[in-house]
Write a structure and sequence with these properties.
Number of helices: 15
Helix content: 40-55%
Shape: globular
Largest sheet: 6 strands, mixed
Number of strands: 10
Bound molecules: ligand AN7
Strand order of the largest sheet: 1-2-10-7-8-9
Structural class: alpha/beta
Distance between the termini: 46 Å
Length: 354
């Protein structure tokens, strides 16, 4: 049977009815890839699986939430949606609005969104409102303006977003045949970690599994309110997707951490970029910097024994590496060899670099 997206696939567990018009781009059903080389490299006997959410239609996990949020917005008669975004939400909102035939307004922080995401919002025809401020300013404005204009908010404060995103946990359980021991995610607004916890507990209550993972959230060191224990006013990190100081799902995420007996920690920008490169060079998997935060943190906690040997660990790679070509290229530009168009020079370049 042709796969047609998370709502069709999980309609018994989502707030839709037979008459709901589903707005889908075939999101979900992403691969769960077992890492071969990194565990060997770090000499630890752990099973690390990557949930490659960058392979969703717009290149990030946001599509799972956006199919639900836009479907419900259309069902309620909405003609326009709005969001604040560090990039991926705006890309997903723009694409699903185009599919639905409604308008998308996106507020983005000027100069702080990765090129691929900006291209997506533009080409899908969203109205792009750049603000001289950060994501948190944008989020505040979106909440205010939604009371004065006919628009539906599709940020993760919209409960349908998390409903859609919980399906990633369902898929992981189905792909593994059990729930992992640890689930590691990058944390910005903390919607995704909260949604995964909902999904895992729902499948346990439903009797599909009898355990749930410990939820582990990693933040960028310059944007780490969960580690500080309070909001951060001037967040900064190279991982622009998670450059967020005032997470919207604060209480839900703390609840997920406590109930699952998990933890929060932070990674420096250098650790994040190093993990991004490790994944690309050792496993052939390209994710954006924010996504590599889950690998940076997990590898560190596996090395130091906090995640013990014998564990089964899932790391979510939230967004595709092509989202942020500038950061990738700036990490590697010195690796290029420039030659004249002569066979001997190509040959030497090969011989000298075997
Ligand atoms: C690649 O697009 O908030 O903790 O506005 O794009 O659920 O917020 C993006 C978040 C992780 C953090 N990885 O997820 C937005 C936005 C990537 C992301 C996160 C985001 P949450």
């Amino acid at each position: 049977m042709r796969y047609t997206g998370i709502i069709e696939n999980y309609k018994d567990r989502l707030p839709v009815s037979e008459s709901t018009r589903i707005i889908s781009l075939g999101e979900g059903n992403t691969p769960l890839i077992r890492l071969d080389n990194i565990p060997r490299e770090i000499e630890k006997a752990v099973d690390i699986y990557i949930k490659y959410e960058g392979l969703n239609p717009t290149g990030s996990f946001k599509d799972r939430g956006m199919t639900m949020a836009v479907t419900k917005a259309v069902e309620s008669g909405s003609k326009a949606i709005i969001c604040a975004s560090t990039g991926n939400t705006s890309a997903a909102a723009a694409a699903y609005a185009a599919r639905a035939g409604i308008k998308a307004f996106v507020l983005i922080p000027e100069g702080k969104i990765a090129l691929g995401k900006l291209a997506q919002a533009m080409i899908h025809g969203a109205v792009i409102i750049q603000i001289k401020g950060n994501f948190d300013d944008g989020m505040r404005l979106v909440k205010e303006v939604a009371e004065h204009a006919p628009v539906s908010i599709v940020n993760s404060i919209n409960p349908y977003r998390l409903q859609g995103q919980k399906t990633a946990a369902f898929e992981i359980i189905e792909q593994l045949g059990f729930a992992p021991d640890y689930h590691c995610l990058p944390v910005g607004n903390a919607g995704n970690i909260s949604a995964h916890w909902m999904g895992y507990t729902e499948y346990k209550d439903y009797g599909k599994v009898n355990n749930t993972p410990r939820m582990v959230g990693y933040q960028a060191a310059g944007a780490a309110p969960f580690i500080k224990g309070s909001m951060v006013d001037k967040p900064d990190t190279i991982a622009t997707a998670i450059r967020i100081g005032h997470p919207q799902s604060w209480d839900l995420a703390w609840n997920a951490q406590k109930e699952s007996d998990g933890w929060f920690d932070s990674c420096t920008d250098d650790e994040i970029l190093e993990a991004q490169k490790l994944l690309t060079e050792k496993e052939g998997i390209f994710c954006e910097p924010a996504s590599a935060t889950s690998i940076a943190g997990a590898v560190r906690d596996i090395k130091n024994g906090k995640i013990p040997e014998g564990s089964k660990v899932v790391c979510t790679l939230t967004g595709h590496g092509l989202k942020d070509p500038d950061t990738a290229i700036s990490q590697c530009s010195s690796d290029m060899i420039n030659i004249n168009p002569i066979m001997e020079e190509v040959r030497d370049a090969i011989i000298n670099n075997m």
